[in-house]
Each structure stands twice: as C-alpha cells, then as structure tokens.
Write a structure and sequence with these properties.
Layout lengths: L3 H19 L4 E2 L1 H8 L3 H10 L10 E2 H11 L6 E6 L3 H8 L8 E8 L13 E3 L3 H8 L3 E4 L3 H13 L4 E4 L12 E4 L2 H19 L1
Length: about 210
Amino acid sequence: MFVSRNITRLLRYRNSLKRMQELGFETVYSYNLGKETGVSPEQVRKDFSQFGIKGKKKGGYNINELLFTISDIFRKDELQKVIVVGTGNLGNAVLQYKGFLKNMIQIVAAFDIDPAKYKKKQTIPVYPLEKLPKICQELYIKTAILTVPESVAQEVANIMIKAGIKGILSFAPVVLKVPPHITIKTICIVHELESLIYQSVQVCDGSD
C-alpha cells in the first residue's frame, strides 16, 4: 500500500497537469512537472513508476494520457459518496463547499445530535446520529468527514467504524484510536496555523 505522501504528490501533479492542459500544452517532462510541484525530476519519475505510469525517454509524458491514468487511479469515472458527522460552524462550512463535485466527490448526508438541525428536505439532508449505520448501509458509504468537538470525537469515530466507515478525515484536535484497517487523516487548523506563525516568526528573527 502506498504511503500518503505518494498520493498527496500525485494529486499535486494532477492539479499542475490540469493547468498545463488549460494552457494548451500537450506534453510534459519530469523536470517541468517537478519544478511546478516542488520536487525533483527523479521523484516525479519514481512516483509515476510506482503507479505503473511510463513516459518516453525523449518524448516525455502525454498530458491527456497522464490525466486519464491519474483519474483512473482515483476512480474519477464514478461519483464518490461521503458523509459529514457534526454540523456546527465547521461542519456547515464543509457542507456548503462547492468544490467537491468538480473532483467527483459528493456529500450525500450529514449527522448531528441536535434535533433542531435535522433537515431531510434539503440538498444534503441532516439526520440523527443514530441513523448513521442505516444510511451508510443503504448508500454504501465508506468515507466520512468528522467535525465534532474533541470531547466526543473518539466516541463518534467508534460509531462510524462500527457502521462500516473505512476512511475518516477528522478535524478534531485529538489522536483517534482506530483499528489498523481504518485510514484516518487528522487536520487541526489551529495547530497548522500556530506552526505557520512560529515558522514565520523564526524567519523574521533570522533576517534581523
């Protein structure tokens, strides 16, 4: 199984390739793509070879073919269904984001424990948390976005996993304990910002 860094770079390659395609380019070389994404040409070739992507020694890579292959790797020929658990400020921001569909990702349902938030007759219905297992089974959901408070994150994650969720993107600033077969990515916006501020200050102090 490929590590997340390989997948992340592949997504960066895809974004750069799309921009090149929009500009009318038909061919790209590893050094072009490396320069655009901040990695070495060797790393580009290594990443591509791990996914069975081959170019021509002197002809580079055909951009259309590369994008088709990468889309196939991420199964972009079919809509990927996702749920959101937690409809507070952050959860609502995620629900309102319009960029998911451009990448064949659709949020099909949301869940919360607050009855005041239950809304079935809207684009993305909001259900009680206890209905999560039933909805996941009916819609074959395997991926979820977790936007609940830190204090209940582990409890809710356990419910999601028991319901058949295999991948969780968590915004709770806590290390969730999950079985080895569960893929989890944690994003703490505050921690990321604090890290960025620290690095910015260090750069400023170093330049004085």
